[in-house]
Amino acid sequence: MNLNILFEDEYFIAAEKPAGLPSQPTVDKRRPDFFTLFKKQLQEERGKDFYLALHHRLDRDTSGVMIFAKNKIANEPLAEMFKKHKIQKTYLCVTQSKKSPANWEVQNHLAEVRDPVLKKMKMKSVRSGGDKAHTVFRRIETYTKGLLVEAKPLSGRMHQIRVHLSENGMGIFGDDIYPSPQKPAAPRLMLHALRLEFTHPFTHENLVIESPLPEDMRQFIASLTS
How many CA atoms lie within 13 A of 145 on its CB side? Predict the structure, then answer.
């Protein structure tokens, strides 16, 4: 598997994470993950001392752009940008049809709970406690059987977009944790990290790094119009 590089300069490198790969190593050391595969690819191409540092992640079944630090000088500025939400993330998702305004946002508090049926940790909205979560949404396209929605999280909670949509009756196709439409069946979670936008901490340029919508999502969207 040759992983696609989307952007690179002296400090950072961004690449396209395929769906189905965890972002980072898991408890099962035999299981492939995106960070390890990408680092191995770069070290094979550029030498075994090539440096790569991970500062954020995507859910296993989410595809799209991820950015890494290429040297230790870049570590702290990149970490700081993520911590202070100075990197604007934009996602595309295919959701269940529902009458909705063209633009809306969700602000609430989310807490982690254990699902007794799935035996997994998940997030849910809570009236007290939890952490503040804020997402801005925009309806892009309406299809016969679903919607294409843009999501911009303004906070960084686990599964934030998935929870905010599912609790609004707009579950993402292919979601195996939160309520979602079952027909037509999606090949995986229809969620894609489309874009990262930020001011470069060293050059002060305004950067926009995009990952094109993958073919499996394009094909699934086409099936919603028939």
Answer: 15
Q: Are 123 and 111 in contact (CB under 8 A)?
A: yes
The structural domains of the chain, ordered by start, are 5-223 (3.30.2350.10)
Short-list 168, 221, 224, CA closest to 191: 221
Q: Which pLDDT tens digit goes with each residue over 178-208?
A: 999 999 999 999 999 999 999 999 999 999 9
Neighbours of 216 (CB within 10 A): 17
Q: CA 168, CA 98: separation in Å to the nearest integer?
A: 9
**Residue 152: both structure tokens together:** 């911009």
pTM tops 0.90, yes or no: yes
Per-residue CA distances from 76 to 191, 208, 209 (Å): 29, 20, 20
Q: Tell me which residues are annotated as active site.
A: 59
Instruction: Write the DSSP assignment of 154-193 as a string of letters.
Output: SS--TTHHHHHHHTTT-PBTT-SSS----SSPPSS--EEE
CA distance 91 to 65: 10
What single DSSP character describes residue 11? Answer: S
Other residues' Cβ atoms within 10 Å of the Cβ of residue 148: 19
